[in-house]
Design goal:
169 residues; alpha+beta; Aminopeptidase; 27% helix; 36% strand
């Protein structure tokens, strides 16, 4: 498997599983039923962020988007979102994308990585992020409307990458 920066030509390959995942409605609060062009700005990042793809045997099997969590005074903290083609789950694609993103954030001198909304019923993702050092800092009860489980919580997760500067520095 290779992970590389995506190109505009990769979007149709990502969109195939992007749409499946959004239509499942279990992990993202993105709009359902989007067209190829409606969905593009929801996933394809622009600088200073980036979108990457995981490719195996010439096929895109996963993608991640990453960049600053907030602009301005929040731009020193990164965030990211991840997609793995449902046909390719449990093959280490998510872990590879997560490790890539953490390395990228370190190289870009982010101070930490903040995940704003990890659905608590997405147990595979929660386990993965915890295994990579993320901590759950809190859970917003009922913040996500799961299609079969109803209102479930969303975790706020964080991975520090460097010590915070003392106040005034």
């Amino acid at each position: 498997m290779q992970i590389r920066t995506s190109t505009a030509g990769d979007w149709p390959g990502i969109f195939g599983f992007y749409r499946k995942i959004m239509d499942e409605g279990q992990t993202y609060a993105f709009p359902q039923g989007q067209t190829l062009e409606e969905a593009r700005p929801w996933w394809m990042e622009t600088p200073p962020g980036q979108t990457v793809v995981a490719v195996a045997d010439g096929r895109i099997i996963g993608s991640a988007k990453m960049g600053p969590n907030k602009p301005g005074r929040g731009a020193h903290i990164a965030t990211a979102s991840f997609l793995v083609d449902p046909e390719c789950r449990n093959r280490g694609v998510g872990r590879a994308l997560g490790e890539y993103m953490i390395d990228w954030a370190r190289q870009e001198n982010y101070h930490g990585i903040q995940f704003n909304a990890v659905v608590e019923t997405n147990e595979a993702a929660v386990r993965l992020w915890q295994s990579l050092g993320f901590k759950i800092l809190g859970t917003i009860p009922g913040a996500f409307n799961h299609p079969t489980k109803g209102l479930v919580g969303q975790h706020f997760m964080f991975l520090p990458l460097r010590p915070a500067a003392p106040p005034g520095h």
